[in-house]
């Protein structure tokens, strides 16, 4: 059968439809839920049903949900499997079937429908979930060596600090079965990939952390479409699947590099663009416009990251007069072209998306240019004072950090420009500033997380802190995986 992303999605939905699940549309990336900034999983639109606050419309449903996980932004391109934007395929039971059926169907889907060899599949279960262990072993026939018991962090799923939750069981694919059964680490990205998580949703986690049993037992699952595509298309990472690679190709064309022969840095940068452009387009399409607060800040940060990454790749705009030197819109056009099977509304919103992107990119480029002027000035000063003191010209870590943090200057670019003028950079000082900021944003993260949980419209009010630095995007985003 075809292993295109589109057909993998369709086969999942059809598989569960033929087992009495109603196919429902993806909900917006902006959840109808004040405690979460962005949609991080397929279950979010069903949360009121799980909690018994809304009546179920159907006993079983299946979806392909657009998701954003800003907490994975650091992983983008560095692991083979994480994106900020991805599609989560899910099957749901609202007080209908439970563990046994969920496990049986997940196995059947994986081995029969998608044809994965059983001997390559590994299972994780929550440490004290003997029931799930037994079903996998006795009823499905997975040997005990390939069923691992894991702790809360991996195998107890919660949608947030509070809310519906429960023990879960995951299916992993083994790329190197020849590595055998000793020293197995399911988190080893070079050997395994987690692709399907089955959550046995039976508790509500309360403010005080206690677990209250839900009235009914539910099933909530998530299978990463890009991950399944990566397995079935036999490519080394999610980025090289048909869901993302065309975007990378467009970016590499603009950068005049070839992905196949690019060095590791360039490959990483191309992956970052491939990832971020999808997140940006789908966020704007769902009404999230760049700003300095809440969700708008997430999209602004992603855009800035994409711009600076493009510059690192040497992209200088795409030469089209209508774009005035911007390049994000032409990559976004590719994302929009690929969007029709994921979200039929994106195409109709294309003009607005492209306009917004162009404006935001050009605005950021101006900031970058102001930074260039500042850098020029600082380099001249460093040279002068070195001459006066007879010392080696050096730019302070503080200045390098200011350029990075406020003007969006990657330190690699600052270093390069400085070196051209014979000035070195106090990298030690830079690292110290960076570390200080990390600590601060970590503290901010905790505050934001707690307050958003307790204040229904705080997500909209999250303070106007300009630029916490590129690497602390998650400080602004109240999500947990
Ligand atoms: P991982 O351990 O790989 O970070 P996870 O345990 O955080 O994944 P879950 O919360 O269980 O992921 O989400 C369900 C499924 O969604 C995962 O099994 C995976 O297939 C997919 N998924 C989760 N996070 C991402 C991501 N950042 N990018 C792409 N797919 C993802
Ligand atoms: Mg996991
Ligand atoms: Mg998981
Ligand atoms: Mg994760």
TrEMBL record:
Tell me which family the UniProt entry assigns to this protein. Belongs to the class-II aminoacyl-tRNA synthetase family. Alax-L subfamily.
What quaternary arrangement does the UniProt entry report? Monomer.
EC number from the UniProt entry? 6.1.1.7
What function does the entry list?
Catalyzes the attachment of alanine to tRNA(Ala) in a two-step reaction: alanine is first activated by ATP to form Ala-AMP and then transferred to the acceptor end of tRNA(Ala). Also edits incorrectly charged tRNA(Ala) via its editing domain.
Know the name of this protein? Answer: Probable alanine--tRNA ligase, chloroplastic
GO CC: one term?
chloroplast
Keywords, in A-Z order: Aminoacyl-tRNA synthetase, ATP-binding, Chloroplast, Coiled coil, Ligase, Metal-binding, Mitochondrion, Nucleotide-binding, Plastid, Protein biosynthesis, RNA-binding, Transit peptide, tRNA-binding, Zinc
């Amino acid at each position: 059968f075809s292993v295109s992303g589109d057909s993998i999605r369709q086969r999942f939905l059809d598989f569960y439809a033929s087992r009495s699940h109603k196919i429902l549309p993806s909900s917006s990336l902006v959840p109808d839920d004040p405690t979460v900034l962005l949609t991080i999983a397929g279950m979010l639109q069903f949360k009121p049903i799980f909690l018994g606050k809304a009546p179920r419309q159907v006993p079983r449903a299946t979806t392909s949900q657009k998701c954003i996980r800003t907490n994975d932004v650091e992983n983008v391109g560095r692991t083979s499997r994480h994106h900020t934007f991805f599609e989560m395929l899910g099957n749901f039971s609202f007080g209908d079937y439970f563990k046994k059926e969920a496990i049986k169907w997940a196995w059947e889907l994986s081995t029969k429908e998608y044809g994965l060899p059983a001997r390559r599949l590994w299972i994780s279960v929550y440490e004290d979930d003997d029931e799930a262990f037994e079903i996998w072993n006795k009823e499905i026939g997975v040997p005990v060596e390939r069923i691992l018991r894991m702790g809360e962090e991996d195998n107890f799923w919660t949608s947030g600090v509070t809310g519906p939750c429960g023990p879960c069981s995951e299916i992993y694919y083994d790329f190197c079965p020849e590595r055998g059964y000793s020293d197995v680490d399911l988190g080893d990205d070079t050997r395994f990939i987690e692709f399907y998580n089955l959550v046995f949703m039976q508790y509500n986690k309360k403010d005080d952390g206690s677990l209250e049993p839900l009235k009914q037992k539910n099933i909530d699952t998530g299978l990463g479409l890009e991950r399944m595509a990566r397995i079935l298309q036999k490519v080394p990472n999610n980025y090289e699947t048909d869901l993302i690679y065309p975007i990378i190709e467009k970016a590499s064309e603009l950068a005049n590099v070839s992905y196949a022969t690019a060095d590791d840095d360039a490959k990483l940068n191309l992956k970052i663009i491939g990832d971020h452009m999808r997140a940006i387009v789908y966020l704007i399409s769902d009404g999230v416009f760049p700003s300095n607060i809440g969700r708008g800040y997430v999209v602004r940060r992603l855009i800035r990251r994409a711009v600076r990454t493009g510059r690192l790749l040497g992209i200088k705009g795409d030469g089209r007069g209508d774009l005035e030197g911007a390049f994000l819109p032409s990559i976004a056009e590719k994302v929009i072209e690929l969007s029709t099977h994921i979200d039929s509304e994106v195409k109709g919103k294309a003009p607005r998306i492209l306009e917004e992107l162009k404006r935001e990119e050009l605005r950021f480029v101006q900031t970058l240019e102001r930074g260039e002027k500042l850098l020029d000035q600082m380099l001249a000063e460093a040279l002068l004072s070195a001459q006066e003191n007879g010392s080696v010209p050096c730019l302070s870590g503080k200045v390098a950090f200011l350029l990075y943090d406020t003007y969006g200057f990657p330190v690699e670019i600052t270093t390069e420009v400085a070196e051209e003028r014979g000035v070195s950079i106090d990298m030690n000082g830079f690292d110290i500033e960076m570390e200080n900021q990390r600590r601060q944003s970590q503290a901010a993260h905790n505050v934001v997380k707690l307050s958003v949980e307790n204040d229904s419209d705080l997500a909209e009010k999250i303070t106007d802190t300009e630029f916490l630095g590129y690497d602390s995007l998650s400080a602004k985003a109240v999500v947990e995986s």
